[in-house]
Amino acid sequence: LLGVPYGTTKGQASGKIPKKVLGETQTGDLIQARIARNNVQRIDELVEELGQQGPVIGRFRSANPYDTRVVELNNLITQTVPGLARGIFKEVGVLTDTDINRYMQTLSNAKLTKEQAKNATEQLMKTINYSIRTQLDTLDKAGKDVREFDELKESVKESGGITENSFIAPSGNTYKLPY
Question: What does pTM read for this prediction?
């Protein structure tokens, strides 16, 4: 190209600046956010499958090591906490017992009534979707190439009857958030 300094790429000469590749930490945060989102959806499904639940029944069921649904639910809750903390709420460093308990309280579980479990899931999904959208938008505006996360971006985007205050669970149920 004439009149362009040596070492200038065609993209730079045309005024198009190529997007930068996401760093390992940024990619890791988005992957943890995606895993946390999927786990919260699976937790919602498991709570639905439990049938009767609530403070009393939930305590008895949680104490029974042979209730495979509750064991799976509790294991999934335990697995989800680090992803929520790091991928969604941006915690750094070692998670303390207080941190872990605080995040566990945001998740649906067998000790909640059906309505409480639904509300917990709806509130957490709103927070997760907002966090993912914010992360992707911020990285895009900072000149990072987030195209590999287009599918994730679309899944948390406002569309059709789904708004920022609602989401569709894998079961096909649309949950409207109270705010």
Answer: 0.74
